[in-house]
Design a protein that fits this description.
By secondary structure, the protein is mostly beta strands. It is built from five helices and 51 strands. The strands form 13 sheets. It has a five-stranded mixed β-sheet. A hairpin with a 4-residue loop joins strand 44 (660-667) and strand 45. Helix 1 (3-16) crosses helix 4 (61-106) and helix 2 (28-37) runs antiparallel to helix 3. The protein is extended and about 115 Å long. The relative contact order is 0.06. Residues 330-425, 458-555, 559-652, 655-753 form the Fibronectin type-III domain. Keywords: Immunoglobulin domain, Repeat, Signal. InterPro entries: FN3_dom, FN3_sf, Ig-like_dom, Ig-like_dom_sf, Ig-like_fold, Ig_I-set, Ig_sub, Ig_sub2. This is Myomesin 3.
Length: 766
């Protein structure tokens, strides 16, 4: 460090000091030492400088060490003080900003962030005027129509709805008529000021088809087709076709014909085995050959002005009749994972029907895509629903299928998997693409840069990726650098406790950094290592893996608990159950039912459902059933859950609909007798009573009239104000609960009726 740098640091330290803080300065000896060490000032000049001060001293080696330590200490102190000043400045700045924010919030006149906008609607449609206002404190809001204040209490019931939620002001006008064409405004004010926003609403009238373009717009906006009937559950069988149809009340408009179908939330498209079409007010989905994978919740979406309308139903696909009596159902959801150059891993889901005896295992078959020459992949049944397939050819396209087996026989094969092509997943990582010259690129292969590698290095990170009852799957990382030549791998195993390594795949070298061993002794622990090989030779062995115990059996999951059955309709029952706890995540659940008095359980669903609630349709009205549920995972099906209590299939009890048809039967000075009609839907049981509410139009709030339910449909409301105008609403109650609130009644004025009560006239005769 030069002298001037040292002096500058010391000056900075002195500048940061204060009266309360310690001041720092170098001793004359330190200055002289620093001067002597610089190439710019000779040592003699430095000593002469000290002689002039009368302080001539001799420099020693440890003096420079002390100087360096002093400078380092001062630099650290300088850094700490600089950090403190920076933090102090940030704190002051934050406090200032917080103070400004508090002052800004403490008081602010209203300001429209988003003002009202003009609307044009057709007659009998609704419109919503909306704006956003900023003000502190919250302002008072008043709406006007052509300068006249809007009071929802004086308008017909439900005509206007005014809301103010977090500064979002809305005015909702229902069933617009020509009289609603006007200029609407909103006034907001607080103690700091006021603001206004204006907008015009134009209501157009429909004059018929002869009116031209506007009539088409009116038809498009007001005469929109709707679903004619709800979708019903559909029952099909494997290898058979089915068609799911949805009917509409009228022809769909052009923009509504963009219909979409979903199965379990997945968008469906036209394919060789699936056809989607719309014709003659009917949207249909046809599957030419059903599999259990086609089972699930089907949803149709039809576009509308405010989004889309939808309906959902469930399609059941039963197992095809077994070729051998007592054979299990076919597996499903066959998928390929971890695809490499010469191997991959298959997974599937166990069938819901085991044929009456436990499933012993599964057989896997493969074929080259486009052929029907199926080749077995395993000699012994696999006990879990997962299996590594080895010995594949790189770049070849394969398809797979699985069969289940029990003591009675073998099931039908599963649905063929999607075609999958083997490839090197690390190939893209070994290519560097350099763009240049407006879209052109240069590709640099890492293999070309590693031509100096002859005998390869050993692999790294050898470990067991999967341990199952039937096999142990190994994985490792390729050596880096790998070299230009293609690599093969040889796997060696060692029984823990011995010193003898054995080559496992001498006759079948592996091309991918994956391998599976099947014939290990259950209960014994093994270590594994791998060697790399190319045409130049074979590498040293890799570091051994951690010990792995073979034959570890994968346990099935526990069954769900708290399975409850509830009445739904005259042919269906709703089931609910608790999901598994402790982080256990099943592939889904299978549901079973049987009629009381019988021993045979019937499978409800043949594809696992992932939810914990399901509606079981297709039951016999008036019959009594019990239900149970099983969890599904890779190891198979769990034990059955405890059976539900027997339940008779009957329509569910629901809350009643709202009462209607309010009338004024009698009126006094301070009381009114109100009557009404019963709900149109009683919810499957008798009405136990009614709750009545009243509203004085001169007030904002509604008030309860009775606390206990009124058993009859006539009630006298007392303690009213003479001359005031009232409206009423009611709710019905049954065993399921309190139903919907009714629409407000007509406005009734509280004034005593003076006309004589009707009755038999008495005429005096002579």
């Amino acid at each position: 460090m030069k002298l001037w740098n040292l002096v500058w640091i010391l000056l900075c330290v002195s500048a940061f000091g204060s009266e309360e803080e310690e001041t720092f300065s170098l001793s004359d000896l330190s200055i002289a030492s620093a001067l002597a060490l610089t190439s710019e000032i000779p040592q003699e000049a430095a000593i002469l400088e000290l002689e002039q001060r009368g302080q001539k001293r001799i420099l020693f080696g440890n003096d420079m060490e002390k100087l360096e330590e002093e400078v380092i200490r001062l630099c650290r102190l300088l850094r700490v003080r600089a950090d403190r000043r920076a933090l102090r400045r940030k704190a002051v700045e934050k406090a200032r900003a917080e103070k400004e924010y508090i002052e800004l919030r403490s008081g602010r006149p209203p300001m429209f962030w988003i003002p009202l906008r003009v609307h044009a609607v057709w007659e009998k449609m609704e419109v919503k005027l909306a704006c956003t206002v900023l003000a502190s404190p919250p302002p008072q809001v008043t709406w006007y129509k052509n300068g006249v204040r809007i009071d929802p209490r004086l308008a017909p019931a439900g005509k206007y709805k005014i809301k103010n939620k977090f500064g979002m002001l809305t005015l909702h006008i229902s069933r617009c008529s020509m009289e609603d064409s006007a200029e609407y405004s909103v006034e907001v004010k607080n103690q700091y000021g006021e603001a206004y926003s204006f907008a015009t609403v134009l209501v157009r009238k429909y004059y018929g088809m002869e009116s031209g373009f506007d009539s088409e717009i009116y038809r498009s906006e007001s005469i929109i087709a709707d679903f004619a009937f709800p979708l019903k559950p559909l029952f099909s069988r494997e290898k058979e076709p089915f068609t799911l149809s949805c009917y509409f009340s009228s022809d769909l408009l052009e923009h509504q014909r963009d219909i979409t179908w979903f199965r379990d939330g997945e968008l469906l498209q036209n394919s060789e085995c699936r056809e989607l079409k719309y014709q003659d007010r009917e949207a249909s989905l046809t599957v030419s050959c059903a599999y259990k994978e086609d089972e699930g919740f089907y949803t149709i979406h039809v576009p509308s002005l405010d989004g889309y309308k939808e309906q959902t139903t469930y399609v059941f696909v039963k197992d095809a009749a077994a070729e051998t009596a007592g054979a299990p159902g076919s597996p499903l959801n066959l998928k390929c994972h971890d695809v490499n150059k010469d191997c991959l891993i298959l997974s599937w889901v166990a069938p819901s029907d085991n044929g009456g005896s436990p499933i012993l295992g599964y057989y896997i078959e493969r074929c080259v895509a486009g052929s029907e020459d199926w080749v077995p992949c395993n000699d012994k049944p696999v006990k879990t629903c997962r299996y590594p397939v080895l010995g594949l050819a790189e770049g070849q396209t394969y398809q797979f299928r699985v069969k289940a087996v029990n003591k009675e026989g073998i099931s039908h094969p599963s649905k063929t998997s999607d075609p999958v092509t083997t490839y090197d997943p690390s190939k893209d990582k070994r290519v560097t693409v350099i763009p240049y010259d407006e879209g052109r690129t240069i590709e640099i292969f890492k293999d070309d840069l590693e031509g100096h590698i002859k005998i390869p290095l050993p692999p790294t990170n050898v470990h067991a990726s999967e341990v199952r009852e039937d096999y142990v799957a190994l994985a490792w990382d390729e050596p880096d650098p790998r070299g230009r030549e293609p690599l093969n791998y040889y796997v060696e195993k060692l029984i823990v406790g011995s010193n003898s390594w054995q080559m496992v795949n001498l006759d079948m070298p592996v091309n991918s950094p994956r391998f599976a061993l099947f014939d290990l002794v259950k209960g014994k622990s093994y270590c594994f290592r791998v060697r790399s090989a190319n045409k130049y030779g074979i590498s040293e062995p890799s570091l051994p893996s951690e010990p792995v115990t073979a034959g570890v059996k994968l346990a099935t999951l526990p069954p769900p608990s708290q399975v409850l059955a509830f009445r739904d309709t005259k042919t269906s029952v709703v089931l609910q159950w608790d999901k598994l706890k402790d982080g256990l995540e099943p592939l889904g659940y299978y549901i079973y039912c049987r009629e009381t008095g019988t021993e045979e359980w019937q499978t409800v669903n043949n594809k696992p459902v992932t939810c914990n609630e399901f509606t079981v349709p297709g039951l016999q009205p008036g019959k009594e059933y019990v239900f149970c549920v099983k969890s599904v995972n890779e190891a198979g099906l769990s034990e059955s859950s405890p059976e539900t209590d027997p339940i008779v299939v009957r329509p569910a009890i629901a809350c009643p609909s709202a009462p209607h048809g309010f009338v004024l039967l009698n009126c006094g000075k301070a009381d009114m007798t109100i009557g009404w009609k019963p709900p149109k839907r009683k919810g499957g049981t008798k009405i136990l009573g009614y709750f009545l509410d009243q509203h004085d139009t001169s007030e904002l709030d509604w008030h309860e009239v009775n606390i206990q339910p009124i058993p009859q449909r006539v009630y006298t409301v007392s303690n009213l104000e003479e001359g005031h105008v009232y409206e009423f609403c009611a709710r019905a109650m049954n065993m399921a609960g309190v139903g919907e609130v009714s629409e407000p009644s007509d406005l009734f004025k509280c004034e005593e009726w003076t006309m004589p009560e009707p009755g038999i006239s008495h005429v005096k005769t002579t």
